[in-house]
Amino acid sequence: xxxxxxxxxxxxxxxxxxxxxxxxxxxxxxxxxxxxxxxxxxxxxxxxxxxxxxxxxxxxxxxxxxxxxxxxxxxxxxxxxxxxxxxxxxxxxxxxxxxxxxxxxxxxxxxxxxxxxxxxxxxxxxxxxxxxxxxxxxxxxxxxxxxxxxxxxxxxxxxxxxxxxxxxxxxxxxxxxxxxxxxxxxxxxxxxxxxxxxxxxxxxxxxxxxxxxxxxxxxxxxxxxxxxxxxxxxxxxxxxxxxxxxxxxxx
Length: 251
Prior knowledge:
Elements: E1 7-16, E2 19-29, E3 34-38, H1 45-52, E4 60-65, E5 68-69, H2 75-81, E6 83-85, H3 98-108, H4 117-130, H5 146-159, E7 164-168, H6 176-193, E8 196-200, H7 204-210, E9 213-218, E10 221-226, H8 228-232, H9 235-242
Helix pairs in contact: 3-4, 3-5, 4-5
């Protein structure tokens, strides 16, 4: 593994029956970056996240995080190794308060079994304050709106104390006025907490403006990789998104 990589994916394949969802996927991610993952529906983006976090096991290839192979590790062990994530559909515990949701992440990820309840609640409140939901700590998640629920899920993932955070369409369902505050949170996660971010998003302009590097998947393969400027000028990427070969540029 490259000495300056936090995550390395090597020759990754995964099959579901006769369907090959990812094929010979390889890339490396340097620490302290915000990396975007793009691709049309069905390109394999969430499948990639499920492989990295141990939900699925690869048919071939290797996933190495911080110099440690992840194959065969359970999702819980991978979380404790330092990889947190959110889910495309959003999965907060609706019957718990915002703070209780964050405490679930706190205990699931970082080893706080020796910490008392008061200390754990303090840490959980700090995470909610960081994402701007501190005043809603005691509110049941079922009473929160969509945006607030998705931010609670982000807070729960942060509470696991990750070194790398995988975000699966965290802005889905946000209105235009809600996008910029959420983007600022993601930037602060990298800038202030030093957490590497890997981000799936269908709002292409958000990834283009926020990420330093982009990986584009199509039909389970890596179609392109590079800076936002390089991806915007790539004719193959335009063809994959818009079906007009060489005629459309992103941006």
